[in-house]
Structure formats: C-alpha cells, structure tokens
Amino acid sequence: MGRIVLDKVTKRFGDVEVIPPLDLTIEDGEFTVFVGPSGCGKSTLLRLVAGLEDVTGGQIQIDGSDVSSMPPAKRGLAMVFQSYALYPHMSVRKNIAFPLKMAGMKSAEIKRRVDNAASVLNLTDYLDRRPGQLSGGQRQRVAIGRAIVREPAAFLFDEPLSNLDAALRVGMRLEISELHERLKSTMIYVTHDQVEAMTMADKIVVLQAGVIEQVGSPLELYRTPRNTFVAGFIGSPKMNLIEGAAAASYQAHTIGIRPEHFDVSAEGGKWSGTVNVSEHLGSDTFLHVQGTGLADSITVRADGEVAFRHGDTIHLTPREEHIHRFDAKGLRVE
Amino acid sequence: MARAVSNRRRLINTLLAWSIGLLIFFPILWTVLTSFKPEGQAIADPPMFLFFDWTLENYFVVQERSNYMRYLMNSIIISGGSTLLGILIAVPAAWSMAFVPSKRTKDILMWMLSTKMLPAVGVLYPIYLLFIQLGLLDSRLGLVIVIMLINLPIIIWMLYTYFKEIPTAILEAARMDGASLRSEILYVLTPMAIPGIASTILLNIILAWNEAFWTLNLTAAKAGPLTAFIASYSSPEGLFFAKLSAASTMAIAPILILGWFSQKQLVRGLTFGAVK
C-alpha cells in the first residue's frame, strides 16, 4: 500500500517560500512524475515526502497516517538518488543488503532477498564488486536494487537517469517502467525531462515556482494544457505560441499549435515563410521557419521524406481542430 | 595535456628540488652525524663532516645517565592518549559542523582556529595555577589533557574538511535506508572517512610528540616525555653537543620511522581538498 496525500504542504527556507500551500493526492500504485524547469521545487517536494526536509506547514499522509514529523527511516519509503549515492566502501551485495541489515533482518532472509533483487536487475555477476568498479548503468541498477529489497510503501526517484548517456537512459527508462508494471507499487519520479515524464507517467504533475500548474495523464496534458506554461513545457519540439493578429482571428490572446499539427506545402497555404534550418531525423523532419510574421521562428514537424532546404519558401496550414486558445492571462479558453 | 618540459629545464628542477630537500633535511642529518662523534670533534672548527672517529660512546653515556625508556613511554602515552581523546571529541564535533551546519558554524570554526593565534605563554600562568590546584602538575593525565586541547582545533579543522568531501546524498541514502544516527556514523561515515581520520591521527601524534612548551613547563622528573629528555642535556654548565645530539636522535627516531612509513597518508592529509 502507498497512498500519499499532501495537504496544504508548505516549505520555506528562511524568508523564501519555495513551496506555497500545495495539495496533491497520489493514489496507491500510481506512477507519478513531478516535472518542471530547474528550481521549480520538484526535488524539494520529493525530499519533503521522503522526510529529508521538514515541512514548514501542512501535513503529509502515507496510507492515512500523518508522517510529517517522522524521520525518513520510519516512513517506509525508498529513494533512488541522482548521484546513485552508493556506499563506496561496500560491495554491491552489502550495498543492497544495507537497508535490510538496518531493519535487523535475519541473514538468511537478507541473502534470499538480495539474490532475488540481483537476478531481477542482472547484477548477479557483480555482487562482489565495489561501486567504483561498475559502469553508470550498473550503479543505477544497484541503487534501484537497494530500494526494491525493502518492499517499500513507495519509491522515490530523484532524477535517476540524468547522469547516464542518452542510449542508456532510454534502456533504464524502460527498465523502470517494467519494474513498476511488475511491482505495482507507488512511484514518484522527479525529472526535468518531459520525454521521461510523457513516456513513464500514469500522472504528471507540472510544477513552476513551487506551484502546481496542472495534474493529469500524459495525453491529457498534451491534448488540453491548462495554460501556456504547460503548453510550452509538455511536448517535444515545443508548441508554437503565437500572439497578435493571427491569434485575434481565433478570438484568443495567444494560440498554440504543436509542430506536428501543420500541413506543409511548397505551393500554397494559410501562412508562408522561409525555411531557416531543416533537421532530418529520418522518420521526421523538423523545419524551423522564419519570416512568417507570426513569431520569431515556427517549428514544424513534417514527414521524414519532405525535402525543404535552407532558404526555400514554405506554406503552412494549421489543422484547425488542434489549435489551442489562451486568454491574456495565459489560461486555456475552450 | 601535459606541459612540454625540456630536458635542461627538468635537470635544473631536479637539482633545485634535491638541494631544497637536503637543506631541510640537513639539521637532522647533522644531529645524527654529531651523535657519533667524540665530544671534542663535535665542536671542531672547521666542522668535520664524515671523516671523524666514529663512536657509540655518547649513546652509552646517555643511556647510563638517564632512563630513556621511561621518557619514551611518557611520550607514547601523552601523544597517543591526547590524540585518541582528541579524535573522540573531534569526530562528533566535525560531523555536526559538516552535516548540520548552522549560521554560526563558520564563526565557530574561525574562533577555534583563533585560539591557536594566542601565544601559549599567555595562558601558561593560569594553566600552571590550575594544574597546582587540581594536582595535575608533572602528571601524564594533565599533559594528555593540555596537549589534546592545544591540538583540538587542528583535529577538528582537518576532520571537518574531510567530512565536507563526503557527498551528503550518501548520508541521506543511509537515512532513507533506515540507519540511525549511530549506524550512520558507524557504518557509513567513518569507513568513508578512514583515510582522513588516519592522516589526522598521524599528524596529531607528530605534533604532540614534538610539543615542548607545555611538556617542559608542566613536568619535572616523573611525567617528562622525550622533549624533556633532550632538554636535560642542554645544560648551562657546559655544552655536550655530541651527547645532546645522541639524545635528540634517540628522541626523534621513533617518530621519524612512523612518519617515514606513513608518508603517503601524511601528504594526503596535508594537501587534502586541494585537488579532487
């Protein structure tokens, strides 16, 4: 079990309010991702849940009981750190066994659980090595192993993949998703990478300056962003936000069009401009179009076979049903 | 990329390094050589470097006249005891300053260091009176306490810099893993800080071993360590350079050997934090 409720949780560091009163419910078994730009308070929020920081006000409940003033060890949570935070002087086996040893478990049971976790994470051959003798991906797996042996109420991940190279990151992303499928435990995952958020989450919490901008499933956030911040943050490449006359013609202060929601043509369309850069990814082509009079640069995601080059004139037509409209305050208009 | 160094330049650097090294080592070498000279040749002018009548007589005389073993034991007990006591106090102190700092932590560290700026003689009189009152004069216990206190700021500073190098995330991981404060210090912090603690211990033993001001002023016949042993040979009645040198050699030999075998730890301790 691991239902986590944040009730008017606040955090101040001296005079600085990092988290203004915040309410959030994370259901048992849910994979929740906190996402936002650096300094948005997502890591602080996770550390409040973990108990590594004390709340200034409000309450944190795990499965109905108030844990706000409990030390981390008593909360029944396990955490995977960005820097892995392995114990460098202990073997992999001792690292994974450490929380069990602290819990006073019998050595036979410890061995059984460690061996089990090691086989799940493909670490069996490395049990006698020290963390310094492992690669980044293996170290991260040890950190995860140390978390899973405890069978915690919930897992907390603090940007666990940001120290890994791109290829490894994709692999580990999948492994963590599979782990969630298998364990069905509550997981809170902090990242600044919206791709990780989109691909892994059941529920995404978008944060900015300690305030929740929107909570929802990845597709909800993609399809109906509540404001221009979420609209710009979720989705890659970013949504084009257009102000001025073009927006006014849709009775909005700002309109948002995702790069994939344009039809492109060399002959004619609603708007026209010049291709500045075209990035060929094979499956897709990203075109950066200038001189449209809409915004400094409009990003368009076109088919991989499209053959526009620098300096070519291009005509763009937005798909009307996918245009997002926002008012002067940046809030969504239906 | 390594900087390009010409062979000529390298030769000059090597010669320079050796000359400086020998210059620093020379007083010790001269002391050792003098200890093997007959008293007359020890003060010969011009000085005799290697071609003198080698003799062990000074060592026999020194051993006959004073009880070397007693001084040695006192030195071991005083330097070992003050170091052990200092470490026991300094580890928790440095831990709290490194990992739960307050607004005043930096000030407290500076204040501790500032006590080293006061000339020792400035507090000799009060401490001497205190020692009389407490009956600690000429006792090993008294010296253990005083020398521990003298070196405590340095021990705390050294440990503090070592502890600062340990990533906080590892200690937080231990806390998440259910470690109590005691387990955290015992199983995680201390093993990771062992190299640092070891070099702190070594440096402190050397400092305590060579401490002369307090040992000379607060001891008489009973608790005097090797510094007092050396001092007893620099008598105003006459200069016995060879015997003084023999006594000095016997006094510094143990610590020189300890230092030689723990060079790596010591160098690491003295330059720690300079490079990651």
How are the elements arranged and paired?
The complex is a heterodimer of chains A (334) and B (276).
Chain A: E1 4-13, E2 16-26, E3 31-35, H1 42-50, E4 57-62, E5 65-66, E6 77-80, H2 92-102, H3 107-120, H4 136-148, E7 154-158, H5 166-183, E8 186-191, H6 194-200, E9 203-208, E10 211-216, H7 218-223, H8 228-233, E11 240-243, H9 245-248, E12 254-257, E13 262-265, E14 271-280, E15 284-290, E16 298-303, E17 313-318, E18 324-326, E19 332-333
Parallel strand pairs in A: 3-8, 3-9, 6-7, 7-8
Antiparallel strand pairs in A: 1-2, 1-4, 4-5, 9-10, 11-12, 12-18, 13-17, 14-15, 14-17, 15-16, 18-19
Chain B: H1 7-35, H2 39-42, H3 57-65, H4 68-99, H5 105-114, H6 124-134, H7 140-164, H8 168-176, H9 181-210, H10 213-218, H11 226-231, H12 241-261, H13 263-271
Which terms would index this structure?
heterodimer; A: 334 residues; alpha+beta; Rossmann fold; OB fold (Dihydrolipoamide Acetyltransferase, E2P); six-stranded mixed beta sheet; five-stranded antiparallel beta sheet; 19 strands; B: 276 residues; mainly alpha; MetI-like fold; 2 domains; 13 helices; 73% helix; disordered C terminus
Question: What do these coordinates show?
Answer:
The complex is a heterodimer of chains A (334) and B (276). Chain A is built from nine helices and 19 strands. Chain A has 334 residues and is an alpha+beta fold. In chain A, the strands form four sheets. Chain A has a six-stranded mixed beta sheet with strand order 6-7-8-3-9-10, sandwiched between helices. A five-stranded antiparallel beta sheet of chain A has the order 13-17-14-15-16, with no helix packed on it. The two termini of chain A are 38 Å apart. The model of chain A has no long low-confidence stretch (mean pLDDT 92). Chain B is an all-alpha fold and 276 residues long. Chain B folds into two domains: 18-58, no CATH class; 66-232, MetI-like (MetI-like fold), CATH 1.10.3720. The longest helix of chain B is centred in the N-terminal third of the chain and has 32 residues, at 68-99. In chain B, 32% of the residues are buried. Chain A binds chain B through residues 50, 52, 71-73, 77-79, 81-83, 85-89, 98-99, 102-103, 146, 150, and chain B through 167, 169-170, 172-180, 183, 187-188, 191-192.
